[in-house]
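Minimal example, chain plus glutamine.
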Amino acid sequence: MDGSIAQVVTGLELWQWQSEAKQKAIAGCIPPDEVDWLLQEVANLDRLSLRLELFKTRSEIALTRSLAELSDLWQRRVESHMPVQYLVGVTPWRNFRLTVSPAVLIPRPETEEIIDLAVAAVADQNSSLQTGLQTGLQTGHWVDLGTGSGAIILGLAEVFPQATLHAVDSSLEALTLAQTNAQQLAYCDRIQFYQGSWFEPLAHLKGQLSGMVSNPPYIPYSMIPDLQPEVSLHEPHSALDGGEDGLDCIRHLVRTAPEYLISGGIWLIELMAGQAETVTQLLQAQGCYRSIQIHRDLAGIDRFVLAYRV
Ligand code: GLN
């Protein structure tokens, strides 16, 4: 959101707006706390003062959106089910604040863990090395395929400060946004961005990748209309639609990654409940992977599959 002041209101006026918006949220089955999420962004107030209504007695609060604009935004949230992250244009993810727009999937909290899994996989691989002569995977080339907002590649940039990073997306709009996020976090000079389909723009990296990480589209297309309206009506279907059984993109990644990964290189993806066993079998059948592992998310759902290139 643009940071310039649009209106100055009293604490009481803002409190009235907040109360009404929360009533509308409750009536529309939207979590009322999301009102505070919006107000945090536009009124520069912290969560606690919003929750405890500590701002109510202030004589002046500067807003970056007028109350009329806020009412319009809130109406879109309640009536059109527009996710609050798109309304405010940012989302928290790991310790970042990422810019998001309807051109990209909103990075999910459960995806945060894929970065920790990559770190643990590198540590495992390093501890199994016989000598200290080889440099670890953490200093090599890493790729995020289908980067969207850039969340995963930025997470990797933070945890692997010596790695060279590559991010691919088929959407130019998504790449522009990922680059904006990389600039904001000062990781721009470590990440190369490519427009294209999966490994296609990375021919120069054949046999050189330490790791491939991806949150590919994995929802079976017939299930998309049944997702929450926030997702099915507003998030890009190109980031969700995994074909008939949801595994189209994952099958492609199983097939194509071995040509790009070094021996011992890491293959790591997110998927949905019920897919992990099948993907494990696909990796086994492919013949180029070892130590195939399924990892759960914090909700106990099989959410990630990890393997090493033989
Ligand atoms: N996790 C997303 C959802 O639940 C789907 C993301 C994906 O397909 N990669 O809507």
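Residues 40 and 46 are 6 Å apart (CA to CA). The two ends are 47 Å apart (CA to CA).
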